[in-house]
């Protein structure tokens, strides 16, 4: 985790780029399915060359898109919010259901004698590996890696790493089961 100052987040370059990006994105953010996924993708792509998925639903909000990479065939469904300030890496074939939030920055509050808003931020990136399914209304906190092939149940709050091929649910999210990665499938006789 890194500490970042309020000035670093609010520097002129970030605010200027972010203002232009949000101004353009505002025109396409809520346009309906099916073809407007592509318009959203093209506006975001201007500011985020590492986004390779075109499936971005209406109402998706992405902050600091230049700090985000998204692999091919991944989907962001309605109302997803991604805070890219601390960096976000989303692999290929990832499904993120509606209302989910990826948060990479929190307020620092170590000094009880100082206003929280003056203490800067604690930032850490989020990594979601390939072939992950994030259920609806999941909150993924800073510094977390969700392993390849995992499933996170709806409404969960992810505060710690989730190993590959796990099923995790709850607040905070806990691994309740491993997915069967055995390719030998038995058929019922």
Automatic annotation (TrEMBL):
Keywords: Acyltransferase, Membrane, Repeat, Transferase, Transmembrane, Transmembrane helix. GO terms for molecular function: acyltransferase activity. The keyword rRNA-binding does not apply. Gene3D superfamilies: Hexapeptide repeat proteins. The chain crosses the membrane at residues 20-43. The keyword Hydrolase does not apply. PROSITE patterns: HEXAPEP_TRANSFERASES. This is Transferase.
């Amino acid at each position: 985790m890194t500490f970042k100052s309020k000035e670093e987040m609010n520097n002129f370059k970030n605010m200027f780029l972010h203002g232009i990006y949000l101004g353009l994105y505002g025109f396409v953010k809520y346009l309906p399915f099916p073809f407007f996924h592509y318009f959203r993708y093209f506006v975001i792509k201007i500011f985020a060359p590492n986004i390779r998925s075109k499936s971005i639903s209406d109402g998706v909000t992405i902050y600091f898109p230049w700090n985000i990479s998204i692999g091919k065939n991944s989907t962001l469904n309605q109302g997803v919010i991604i805070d890219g300030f601390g960096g976000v890496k989303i692999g290929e074939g990832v499904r993120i259901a509606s209302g989910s939030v990826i948060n990479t920055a929190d307020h620092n509050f170590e000094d009880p004698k100082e206003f929280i808003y003056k203490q800067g931020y604690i930032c850490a990136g989020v990594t979601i590996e390939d072939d992950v399914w994030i259920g609806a209304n999941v909150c993924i906190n800073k510094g977390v890696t969700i392993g390849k092939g995992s499933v996170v149940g709806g409404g969960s709050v992810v505060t710690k790493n989730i190993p590959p091929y796990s099923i995790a649910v709850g607040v905070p999210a806990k691994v309740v089961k491993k997915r069967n990665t055995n390719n030998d499938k038995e058929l019922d006789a």
